[in-house]
Amino acid sequence: MVLVPRKDDLKERIRGKIIITLFLGIGMLLIPVILTITDPMFIIAKYKFRLANGSILHQLLESEMEGGRYAIYLFNITNADKFMSGEDYKLKLEEIGPFTYVEYRSHDKLKFSDSGEMSYIPRMRAQFILEESVADTRDVQIVMPNIPMLSATTILHSSPLFIKNLYSIIVRELRSTAIVKMDAHKYLWGYEDPVLTVANNLVPGLIHFKTTGILDRFYDNGTKYQMVLSTEEASKFQIKSVTKYRNAEVWSAEDIPDSTTVFNDTYEGMAYPPLISTSTPINIYRLGVCRTYGVEFCGIKSSEYGPNAFVYKFRNDTFYNTRLCDGKGFCPQGIMDMSRCFFGIPMAMSKGHFLDADPALMNRIEGLKPDPGIHSSHMVIEPKIGLTLETSLSLQVNIMVGDVSYNSDASQFSNMVVPLAHFKIIQPELPSIAITALRLIYITVPKVVLITEIILVIAGLLLLGYSVKLIYTYYIFTIQSIDEKKAETLLVKKDKN
């Protein structure tokens, strides 16, 4: 005997199926919406790249990492005798290089606090890369401005007349000249000149170091720093303060700080807070320079890792100078005064080859060829996570010579900004873990999520379609049940009659 289900039982089964299919169908359609709104991969990436004990960034910061590559070009003087004699009005320069170095950076005494801060003592060293250089720095002879002599002569130009005269006599006796010839290694990493001792004896405490070189000052091992950065999401990687411990042989808690600088909207350039916008204010700080570089948004660029990234360039007011103002309203722009960073040595930073600088700076210089295609600088930042994808900087180190007409050996350089070296700085490739994260966030996961969303939407629509069919069937059964009950009622009435 075959049992035929009652219509009421069928209706109940259909009703149960309707509830299940509607729930599943709506759920499958809601999941893609939730995935789009919440972006779970971004949440995971933010957690992975948080600044905290045991995080990925903690592990990276604890190990020595490559900070950048420096291609250095020195400006060799080709007419030293004619310029010093006054026969040539312009100083003729030729660029010799590149001399390439890799900077390695580590973070000592790295600590995370409960107050949303991270502190450490940065350590930096530079390693020469011969195969990427024009030659060994020790094998290349160069003719360059004498940094110690021109610096001391400039620093003393405002001293009393008898000190200036005494200084000039001693300098001549020591045979210290305004132009020197030596190998590139000494010029970069420091050479001695007795004029430093003379200047310090005349004005005690003026200069505390014995050697002077371009990289020697940037990598001053006699100065220690402690940096404090924010670890909070809204201001992650933002520098809060930098404390300098001058002439500290061994850094310790007992050392007396020389100075503390507090910053706003300033970063080291490695990374930034997540979800930055084109209007987010950004300044870059570099140890050894002790000045900030203001940058501004200038466009959008696609990257090989997937995201559209923000492109930044130096702000016009970054290279602003007042030191060379003549008191008559003329202030040649395009250079950044860095003398306070170099303990009084009148050094200045500019764009490569005085690009975008006041043309007056090259009135007595020959050999510079500013080219936006070569000497422009830019940074590319991924805005979602805040990683710096690409950095290319073209910067030039100069010496600002003041009114040194009182000294006949240096007078030809009076009131000149003399180029010393041009730096081309390139950011190294991102760590593999960062590249993997970017590809997951922007390429792999979005594809998987898109396919999943399409499948869920199709499945959800099919289930909702099936639910409609079940609702229609349920409706038909309900109508039939009503008709059958009416028929039964009529039969009962007839029987009674």
UniProtKB/TrEMBL annotation:
Q: Which InterPro entries does the UniProt record give? A: CD36_fam (IPR002159)
Give the principal location in a single coarse category. Answer: membrane
- TM annotation in the entry: 20-43, 454-477
Keyword Protein transport tagged: no
Q: How does it sit in the membrane?
A: Multi-pass membrane protein
Source organism superkingdom: Eukaryota
Q: According to its UniProt record, where is this protein located?
A: Cell membrane; Membrane, Caveola
Question: What's the protein here called?
Answer: Scavenger receptor class B member 1
- Output the lineage of the source organism: Eukaryota, Metazoa, Ecdysozoa, Arthropoda, Hexapoda
